[in-house]
Amino acid sequence: MSYELVRGTRDLLPDEVRRWRQIEEAFRAVAGRYNYREIRFPVLEHTELFTRGIGEATEVVGKQMFTFPDQKGRSLSLRPEGTASAVRAYLTAGLHINDPFQKWFYLGPMFRYEKPQKGRYRQFGQYGVEVFGSLEPSVDAEVIGLAWTLMTELGLRGLRLKLNSIGCAADRAQYHEVLRAHFAPSIGSMCTDCRRRLDENPLRILDCKEPVCQAFIAEAPGSADHLCADCSAHFAAVRAHLDRLELAYEIDPRLVRGLDYYTRTVFELVSAELGAQDALLGGGRYDGLVETLGGPPTPGIGFAGGTDRLALVLESKPMDEAQIDLFLAALGDDGRALALQLADALRRRGVRVDLDHRGRKLGKQLAEANRLNARTLLVVGDDEVAARRGRLKTMATGDEREVDLDAAALADALEGA
Ligand code: HAM
User: Fold this and answer.
1) Residue 2's pLDDT is what?
2) CA distance 47 to 53
3) Could you tell me which CATH number the domain at 326-416 has?
4) Which of 165, 311, 336, 371 could tie 235 with a disulfide, CB 3.0–4.6 Å?
């Protein structure tokens, strides 16, 4: 019997994990500089959190959730995204009462039952931020700036920032009517999903990917032309902040995002290198979500990016070579016993050491030291065991020096090697 991966999931082997860690560490560092604090919430939640929070009419809730009953028949779902859980955590902790302004970041796996392809998986990683408790356009600009700084830090160029505003709930109700009027005459020629969306939520038509619908979508009126005075001023202020921060954006009048909680500012960072799945990261405001989920009116804004996609885009970029400080080539049982003892003592002192565990010939062990990009090499055989001395070789120069085979002496010698 052989076991296969669950479709849409994948293993990250050590080389790929190095890339993920590079992303995660850069994200943690950047988020820390902006003074966002890390939050961790469960992978499992009650299904209703997502149906209410994200919206029944969305693809994510309608088609993509991993939902199942628990032993007592309650419906649970694997989280398809982090925002609804973040809001739930905010309310569970009572922060809306005690400390409403919060800047959070998170990292972790999300689950969506999608058709797998390059850059699209059923289990995928997300890194994201959420800010609660401020309507100020400066927060919108800060959140977008954080995303941009992360990409710059990772060395990514040529990304495009798409920006739009979809207004408040009242604006959206009005925009729905505008869209219905626009699509109604052609709806017979559009896909069956869009026919349903026309009634349910015409905004969702704008992110339909079906080829037959594209021409009608391209001519649809933009949401930013249907904003009330407040939302219009908010959008203008966000743009002014972005201009001052020299963050170049393109207004995409039909960018609405795929989740129902958005209000006002929405944005995406796209990369040409990703092809069809070009969204590296997306987000926006959700000023009504805390209330929808049972809290007091509390504005919110955030974004999330796909770690898998970011890793794909970074694939061609070299990473710092992994290096070990010392490789101990061990010959014979006594040699290996001493090598293990030395390695252990050095590791406790913070030195990165590896040794031979396979009883291989010296030549093979030296090749292994090269493969591991060891900075120094020490052979430990019977002579070295007897004399308690050996020769520490600096690989880059070939220089060798005599050293006592005890951890303190070796650690000193490694400093200078
Ligand atoms: P989203 O646009 O659904 O937004 O997902 C954010 C990012 O997650 C996407 O831009 C993409 O990079 C990645 N992603 C989504 N689905 C997949 C998949 N199946 N495979 C690989 N990567 C994927 C949200 O999730 C919102 N919670 C973002 C947000 C936070 N809005 C406000 N705060």
Assistant:
1) 86
2) 10
3) 3.40.50.800
4) 165
Grouped pLDDT means (10 residues each) for the chain, 417 residues: 93 96 97 98 98 93 96 98 98 95 98 95 98 98 97 91 96 94 94 92 89 94 95 98 97 93 97 81 98 97 97 89 93 97 97 96 97 96 97 96 96 91
Ligand 1: which residues within 6 Å by Cβ?
81-83, 112, 114, 120-121, 124, 126, 128, 130, 258-259, 279-284, 286, 302-306, 308-309
Q: Which H/E stretch holds residue 389?
A: strand 389-394
Compute the distance from residue 302 Cα to the ligand 1 centre, in Å: 11
- Calpha distance 259→279 (Å, rounded): 14
SS3 15: helix
Dihedral sign, CA of 41, 291, 135, 246?
positive
Q: Does domain 14-168+228-316 have CATH number 3.30.930.10?
A: yes
Q: Which residue of 309, 310, 314 sits with most ligand 1 atoms within 8 Å of its CB, as the best mutation to test the pocket? A: 309
Burial 201-237 (b: 16+ CB within 10 A, else e): bbbbbbbbeeeebeebbeebebbbebbeeebbebbee
Taking the CA of residue 304 as reference, the ligand 1 atom at the shortest distance is: 28
- Give the pLDDT of residue 366: 97
CB contact at 8 A, 305 and 127: yes
pLDDT score for 4: 96
In the chain, what are the domain boundaries?
Answer: 14-168+228-316, 326-416
CA of 353 relative to ligand 1 center, distance in Å? 40
Atom 30 in ligand 1: residue holding the nearest Cα: 303
Closest Cα to atom 17, ligand 1: which residue?
120
